[in-house]
Amino acid sequence: MRLVVPVSGSDPKTRLSAVLSSEERREFTEAMLADVLRALDAAGHSPEVIATAPVTCDAPVTVDERGLDALVNALLAEADGELAVVMADLPLLTPSTVEALFEPDADVVLAPGTGGGTNAFVSRHPAFRVNYHGASIRDHRRTAREVGATVTEVDSRRLATDIDEPGDLAEVLLHSDGAAADWLRDAGFELVVDDGRVTADRR
User: Fold this and answer.
1) Residue of 16, 23, 123, 169 with fewest CB within 10 Å of its CB?
2) CB neighbourhood size of 161 (10 A)
3) Could you tell me which residues come within 8 angstroms of residue 186 by beta carbon, excluding any fewer than 6 positions away?
4) pLDDT at residue 33, as a whole number
């Protein structure tokens, strides 16, 4: 099965612009991508990266400027529905988590994100298509059922934790020892506990 990791290579992670410059956001995105690719490789998969602009990573890279919906739906059509997609901003991903994504014997396997998104999926149904706008996990459940696909979900904190906002950075420092966590520490971020809440602040 073809396994694709889409990533923005042009102006990634704009919601982190309050704490990271444009160049830093590109570097941090590549560090998160490295963590995702390492987990996929260790689980025995051969991922491809499709980026909106060139990125540096240890995987084949195709540059494609199409939006996410158009890109993924074209790939699903080309592959007659046989496709897996894992997002590039999941630095908590581990090989065992990847195995849990591919293990269910269902036509469509969905990995929900904490904010209502869809952080990964495995499709084995020719009619399944995606729509990443809004509460996409809800839409993908409905779409799978409407086309007659069997559907299941992977309940995984590591798959659910995508890094979009400054408040998400603490999750990387708390639960990962990969390239993204190293990048944050080298950039001066550290964990701070204040009134029982844990945040990542920059020195």
Assistant:
1) 23
2) 20
3) none
4) 98
User: What are the residue boundaries of the structural domains of the chain, listed by start?
Assistant: 2-161
Region 139-145: what's the mean pLDDT?
97
Q: Is the pTM of this model over 0.85?
A: yes
Q: What would the two tokens of residue 117 be?
A: 């998104």
The tokens describing 146, both together, are 């409407």
For 142, other C-beta atoms within 10 Å of its C-beta total: 12
Residues 6+ apart with CB under 8 A from 47: 3, 4, 5, 36, 37, 40, 41, 59, 86
**What contacts 51, CB < 8 A, 6 or more positions away?**
6, 7, 8, 9, 61, 62, 63, 64
Burial 71-105 (b: 16+ CB within 10 A, else e): bbbebbeeeebbbbbbbbbbbbbbeebbebbbebe
103 SS3 class: coil
Does 194 have pLDDT greater than 90?
Answer: no
- What value does the mean pLDDT take over residues 172-194? 96
**2-161 — its CATH code?**
3.90.550.10
> Does the pLDDT of residue 203 top 90, yes or no?
no
d(CA 180, CA 185): 9
Neighbour count for residue 134 (Cβ, 10 Å): 10
Reported as a single tens digit per residue, the pLDDT across 110-138 is 999 999 999 999 999 999 999 998 899 99
